[in-house]
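Hi there,

I know you've been waiting on this one. I reran it after we fixed the sequence typo, so this is the corrected version. Both the input and the resulting structure follow.
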Amino acid sequence: MSIKDKIRSSADMARESITVDEWDVTLEVRSMSARQRAKFASSFDQGATTDRIETLWRSVLTSCCFDPETNELLFDESDMEWLLNEKSGVVVDRIVNSCLEVSGLKEKSVDEAGKVSSDSPTNMDAPILNADSTSS
């Protein structure tokens, strides 16, 4: 087997089961692909705004959340309206942060303007979003 074949066949995507007590469910979060992660990180170059955060949440929720029984994506774009309008921001934020953590995306700090202050948004130390940065 060539090195390229070995790399391609390796299972390097992280997975983690998380229990959402408020919903009485367990779901699986999986890391983003390299392309998803690059798109996510590059979207923070202009700073966080409400629209940008919602767009990022949509992207993360529709690409990283899986049904552990079927191995299929849990949410698609058609679910975002009810999920973001009817469900607790604290709960959704916790799920999004789990997705970011399993994807290796953490942030050193976010300044008051909501801009990423680290030089490398892919080498982050703290969750990008937390209960203080969002409303429920």
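Quick highlight: Strands lie at 15-20, 25-30, 65-66.

Best,
R. S.
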